[in-house]
Amino acid sequence: MAKRGVNLVRVHGPIYTTSGTNFGQVDTNRVAQLQYVIKALKREGIYTSLSIYFPLWVQLGPENIAFPGYSGGKNPFALLYFNPAFQAVYREWWRYLLTTPNPHTGLAIKDDPTVAFAEMYNEDSTLFWSCNLDTSGTGNVPDPQRAIVEKLFGDWLLAKYPGRTLTQIRSSEWANLSSPLDDFANGRAGFRGLWSIFNDRTRRDQDTAQFLTELMRKFHRETYAYLKQDLGYRGLVYCSNWKTASAQYLDPLDKYANVVADFFDRHGYFGGVHNGPNASWNIEVNQTYDDRSALKFRSADGTADDFGSPVFDMVYQRQPSTITEINWPLPNRYRADMILVGAAYGALQGSDAMFWFSADAPSWDGLPGKFSTQTPVVQGQFPAAALIYRQGLVQTAPRVVDLQLAVTNLYALKGTPLPAPQNFDQLRGNDVPPGSTLTNVGAIDSLAFLVGRVGVDFVTNAVPQSQVLDLSPFINRTNKTARSLTSELEWDWGVGKLKVNAPAAQGVTGFLSAMGRVELDGVSIESALDYGSVLLVALDGKPIASSAKLLLQVASEEQPSEWTTSPAAGVRTITNRGTVPLLVKNLAGTVQLRRADAATLTVVPLDFNGYRVPGTPGHADMITLSTNAPYYVIEK
Question: Which CA distances in Å does 209 have to 177, 182, 258, 469, 582?
């Protein structure tokens, strides 16, 4: 992995028993495995990020008497925010993990400088659909647990409106708007559903949104202090990475709740139609699917425009921003653009880390699963992409959208003029009620992310002062093109093409055969591949026009051996899941360096593992791509 350019890995899994009567007990074997992984990564110069809690991993039932109300196999969404007993169990996981000496390094994890990040929890929010506090008996938060948070809400209301009872608050502040779950006699205020909250936006809804936001902020502040001060963890901490029921009205509140830690994180996925049993996490016979190109900005069913992308990075409060899960999940033949898109626009937007999700081992995956990245089309493109991203071969642009949002307006559910794209993975997208996903349309063009940096600052004691660059010279919706402020990137969603034309990095990805000959400043590219990527980068950091050593990298499509569908294209049914080996579509095309000494530069092809392919080196004035060589080292 280090050889391909990886320098940071997120280790994502529990270190405790996740269900049954022994729920919550630290699993010392899992901790020992994690300690060894940290050492192994450290040996290769790779940092570690820790992710140890995800509600979907945990299943609570009647046997867990400390958490009454859960039926067998129920996931404890939102429980961590308000249940002190659950918080105590959670804290013990971190205490044991961070303070136990690692026998392989001699350091406690809290003191290991290569353990860079700690994630409080994965994919949860009081403002997401899974926190359905308005549901009695059948919701994710069972009645005994809901009673706890309802009492907290009641106490919060009495503190906000001193001298009044809950009944008086409902009458004077909420225009007598009730919830069937109101139990004022016991100090409990019920919740309305999130759909009602962000659609009606009444005074009651505003108070509810503020309470749910402050509930998260309180947990985040206390957990940050516990990890950093009580336990002495020396790395960086982030809260979570999730979305909400409304990108326009609730997302900004969720992000405001996350501002108390060291940086922001998010998740994003792009995929086509994929239906059938277990389709949210697996690939199986009899499922149906269709391919979808991220470069075309079309909806999964192909019927409408969809101007959202996982690489669109909203920067909050001028803090660092990462994406710890990003992928174009399988099945989808159009994945060759993924890594170049991520590297180029990650660099343009100044994204601070990108984690391609997921890898089960450091070796190639012969039969990829839904989220596999250990393939030639994905990890095989890491080398040149890592150089673009980590060495700044594509410039970071200044802010083109600089929003300031008043927290008082957010609590009043006035929302944001530029909602962040949601880009759910299919597994968690199933939590969204039908018809409830908001479109990625706001008062500011969402394609601003293709032009430069987009930022949001939360204002508490000043008048908001937002600034938005005139984007019309850069975004042409008639021609379906968007050019970066730096002029180094151009996205053509009519053709399905991304062109990179920076001094030390030049290439193209998308529907290559439809593009014909692509002329860039330092290189000409032509390929008969239906879909692929061709990228040239300088290995010495110099411009391509004068570099003494360059890397040419090529990708196409891949598919398991014996894979079959019916019909062969369009929405189709998988009739054979396939087997090993993984087949890569023959590479094809020509590349010519546009410099006077091109004929004197030697070209040595390398195989998929980076080893030299036998044969006589060629020259850079005309490189005919080999069918099975994805890399070429070009040097004087």
Answer: 15, 17, 15, 31, 49
- Positive or negative: CA dihedral 122, 128, 133, 139: negative
Contact 88, 207 (CB under 8 A): no
* Angle value at C-alpha 214, between 325 and 458, nearest 5 degrees: 70
CA distance 59 to 73: 4
Cα–Cα separations (whole angstroms), residue 165 to 157, 214, 521, 533: 9, 21, 72, 65
- Per-residue pLDDT tens over the stretch 54-107: 999 999 999 999 999 999 889 999 999 999 999 999 999 999 999 999 999 999
Closest listed residue to residue 299, CA positions, set 185, 415, 386, 421: 421
- φ, ψ for residue 48, nearest 5 deg: -120, 140
Assess contact for 4 and 382: CB atoms under 8 A.
yes
What residues are paired with 59 via a beta bridge? 19
Alpha helices in 524-579 (DSSP H): none
pTM value is 0.94
Query: How many angstroms separate the first and last alpha carbons of the chain?
Result: 28
Specify the DSSP class assigned to residue 220: H
Radius of gyration over every alpha carbon of the chain, rounded to an integer in angstroms = 26
- CB of 239 within 8 A of CB of 444? no
Encoded amino acid at 102, one letter: N
d(CA 417, CA 405): 10
DSSP secondary structure letter of residue 47: E
Q: How far apart are CA 589 and CA 622, in angstroms?
A: 10
Give the whole-angstrom CA distance, residue 104 versus residue 354.
Answer: 27
DSSP assignments along 170-199, one per residue: HHHTSTT---TT-BGGGTB-----HHHHHH
Residue 530 token pair: 């239906």
Sheet strand arrangement including 453-459: 314-316, 453-459, 399-406, 467-468
Residue 34's φ and ψ, nearest 5 degrees, are -65, -40
Class of residue 312 by CB neighbours under 10 A (exposed 0-12, middle 13-18, buried 19+): buried
Query: What separation in angstroms does the CA of 404 have from each of 201, 254, 316?
Result: 21, 16, 10
Q: Which residues contact 31 (CB under 8 A, 6 or more apart)?
A: 15, 96, 97, 100
Instruction: Please state, in angstroms and rounded to a whole number, the distance separating the CA atoms of residues 327 and 378.
Output: 9
User: Nearest 5°: CA angle at 258, between 218 and 419?
Assistant: 130
8 Å CB contact between 352 and 521: no
H helical segments located in 374-523? 382-390, 407-411, 426-429, 512-515
Convert the pLDDT of each residue in 122-180 to its tens digit. 999 999 999 999 999 889 999 999 999 999 999 999 999 999 999 999 999 999 999 99
State the Cα–Cα distance between residues 612 and 602, nearest whole angstrom: 13
Locate 430 and state its tokens. 């199933």
DSSP class of residue 226 equals I
Whether the CB-CB separation of 292 and 298 falls below 8 Å is answered with yes
**CA separation for the pair 196, 133 (Å, rounded):** 12
Q: Which of 573, 539, 290, 254 is nearest to 419 (CA)?
A: 254
pLDDT value at 425 more than 90? no
| Assigned token pair, 452 | 């430069």
Q: Residues 566-586: what's their mean pLDDT?
A: 97
Phi–psi pair at 195, nearest 5 degrees: -60, -45
